[in-house]
Amino acid sequence: METLLYVFQNKLPCKFRYIPNYIRKHIIIKQRKIEMMVKYCKKNCSNDVVFEVYNKAGKIIESANNSASIYSMIQKIPSLVPEVTRTILYGTINKKIQIKCPGNLNIETPIIWKIGIKILPFIKYHSNSTIFIDSRMRIVFKKLKFTDSNIYSCWQNNQLAGTVKLIVTGETELKLNYQYMMFGTIAIVSVFIVVIWRVLKGKTRFTKH
Question: Residue 98: which of 145, 140, 149 has the closest Cα?
Fold first, then answer.
């Protein structure tokens, strides 16, 4: 029994034929339904680029996994990975704004926009749309919302070209009462004139003999 439990990792079926009869005939075991679970195992194919060196006999004498940034001494110097450009963009609620990919991998391929791992679908323009992607592969927000605040990444050939962090802020308008502003300006100018007049008057008295 201990061997069976070890082989099945303590997950032995209740009605397994090798289980002792006194266990299989127990009232709890009899009332228990047979359960079966089927699970498919899928292993992804390897996409690694491996550089191999063979001798005259056709045997591999050197192997380098280029996908893991490992290169052979007889290979050419690999090109540098393009730098990812990151930027922060501020927008005002209910205003229009455009997001352009800040980076460019110099590849004549379309730009794919993502939020995290989610790909943004290509949204064409129509009169009722508040967000769409134009012909220049820019994200256009006709009317910003607070929920539009996010990090948008642009990709070319499955390579990250750049990221844009959009921050939507509230619209702050300074509403002033122009009458109070006028009275305040007049008061400040009046005080300034009085101070200058007193200074000049005191200076005149000081110069008299």
Answer: 140
| Residue 130 to residue 145: CA distance in whole angstroms | 10
Q: What Cα–Cα distance (Å) separates residue 139 from each residue in 154, 161, 199?
A: 10, 15, 63
Report residue 135's pLDDT band, with 50, 70 and 90 as the boundaries: confident
Q: Six-digit token pair at 182?
A: 């006028």
**What percent of the chain shows pLDDT beyond 70?**
71
- pTM of this prediction? 0.48
